[in-house]
Amino acid sequence: MASADSEPAPGDTEAIPQAVKIIIAGGFGAGKTTMVASVSEITPLSTEEVMTEASYGIDDLGGVEEKTTTTVALDFGRITVNSDVVLYLFGTPGQDRFWFMWDELAEGALGAVVLADTRRLETCFHAVDFFERREVPFVVAVNRFDGADGYDAEEVRRALDVDAAVPVILADARDRASCRDVLVALVTHVIRGRSPALSG
Amino acid sequence: MSHDRRRALARHDKDGADRDSGGDSGPDRVEERFLRPFAVAAGDPDGSGPGPGPETLDLLTLVVAARTPGRSEWLRPEREAILRHALRARTVVELAAEVNLPVGQVRAIAGRMIEDGSLQRCGPSRPLARKDILHAVLVGLRSL
């Protein structure tokens, strides 16, 4: 109920863009936050989700269940594509167990980037598996950390056992142009996947 | 998927076996373990109680203030902050970052505010087909 002294908001007359998102996933420390910061037009914003984890696997009829509160940080950046579209980049929460957040992030996403750290390749298995299962199109970006062994993209592809159609790209999460190239590769991959005549 | 990766997953995640056999049921099941607590009762000291659930707002749902903060925000700083930051259309997740509250809480408060008419949900001015969005994003990214 608007009260008598209410005024129309300035927002009423402004063009409102469509908000879309791309997910930046990967294991803890793979460079997700760095990548978001490298391409975002704003200093990445951060919010959090506070969760109560109820005891699990224990009969809770006694009402003595223990609860612990967990805070999940959610970092995101923004790229204004044009006056009609704004792209949000979301880094997935580092801890694998927060699947509910992944589900929500993946819902309606244009696609995902899986950042792979060749020093700890297994830390991105979850992400690859998740996007395959959800049929969210993704690319693998191999973040080249200083001092990391020089694996080539094909070695990483074999180790991760991703589909041949999934682009695997060497990247540097600290470098804006490199991150841009990864995102361009992702969107190209998504567009190609949507036109059967061009795929394969 | 390779057996190696499956094994690694099972090792890595105690829910792995369940997810492998249960298909999509895995994440849903995990979701049951987590609750979103709201110490600030969705900003409603006058409490309308559990009632019908507030509107479901996605992280990227756009909302805009339907009015400027007024007397009804007295002693409700969360609502006042949300109205101030939503003078222009904002996504729920941006609002949460700007008013410095957990996104789940902002979702709950914003849902109530939509119900009482102080906030409005808004769609894009020019809705585009997914294909057009993808092409716009591609062009936009290339020019970064």
Automatic annotation (TrEMBL), chain A:
Keywords: GTP-binding, Hydrolase, Nucleotide-binding, Receptor. CDD domains: Ras_like_GTPase. GO terms for molecular function: GTP binding; hydrolase activity. It comes from the Bacteria. It holds the Pfam family ATP_bind_1. Belongs to the GPN-loop GTPase family. This is Signal recognition particle receptor subunit beta, a GTPase. It comes from Nocardiopsis flavescens.
From TrEMBL, chain B:
It comes from the Bacteria. InterPro entries: DUF742. Residues 1-31 are annotated as: Disordered. It holds the Pfam family DUF742. Residues 10-31 have a biased composition (Basic and acidic residues). This is DUF742 domain-containing protein. It comes from Nocardiopsis flavescens.
